[in-house]
Design goal:
This protein is an alpha/beta fold and 184 residues long. Helices cover 36% and strands 22% of the residues. Strands 3-2-1-4-5-7-6 form a seven-stranded mixed β-sheet, with helices on both faces. The radius of gyration is 15 Å and the shape is globular.
Length: 184
């Protein structure tokens, strides 16, 4: 918890919150994943791994999980935390380069992208690049699941995905909106 607050104070535009997400929000995020059929899951901005823990607890043993974290301290924490897990790749980098990372690790496609990125505080160009690449990498059958504290970026996300289901999770500080996005 102290590490999270410290990283927020150092990097408020990329960390995006003063507290980690609640377990309730994490559950709401993974409710949108069909773990029986998911072969490849990518998580943008896993931070301290609150959503990652739920993904790992529910995934099939063969499911490959890639974590893309731009914060070096969080990346170190994640590498230590998941060092004994099979089929997990942890990348210290930007979600803007997801296509490069999946090619490097031999991931042929992505079934789900789970995102903890604070689109409200990211530069517009960065948000657009991430969403363009995410849509392309997911194709017509994948799903993008993200949360935001407001619905300000819903219109932006709607530009890239045909269907968006929005649910509210009040058991989080602050309460959050979960967007489950697809092109079907």
């Amino acid at each position: 918890m102290k590490s999270f607050l410290f990283q927020y104070l150092l990097n408020p535009r990329t960390v995006g919150a003063i507290l980690p997400s609640s377990k309730n929000l994490a559950q709401r995020m993974v409710d949108n994943i069909d773990f029986e059929t998911a072969d490849y899951i990518v998580e943008y901005g896993p931070g301290t791994g609150v959503f990652t823990d739920k993904i790992i607890d529910n995934r099939e043993p063969h499911t490959v999980v890639m974590l893309i974290e731009s914060n070096r301290e969080f990346c170190k924490l994640l590498k230590e935390k998941y060092k004994n897990e099979e089929n997990i790749f942890i990348v210290n980098g930007s979600a803007e380069d997801t296509d490069k990372y999946i090619n490097e690790y031999g991931i042929p496609y992505i079934d789900y992208v789970v995102s903890g990125l604070p689109f409200t505080s990211l530069p517009k160009g960065v948000s657009n690049t991430i969403l363009i690449k995410t849509k392309r990498l997911l194709g017509d059958h994948g799903k993008f699941v993200t949360f935001q504290y407001t619905q300000l970026k819903k219109k932006l996300i709607c530009q890239y995905f045909k269907r968006i289901e929005v649910k509210r999770e009040f058991r989080n500080i602050p309460p959050a909106y979960v967007f489950s996005c697809s092109n079907q």
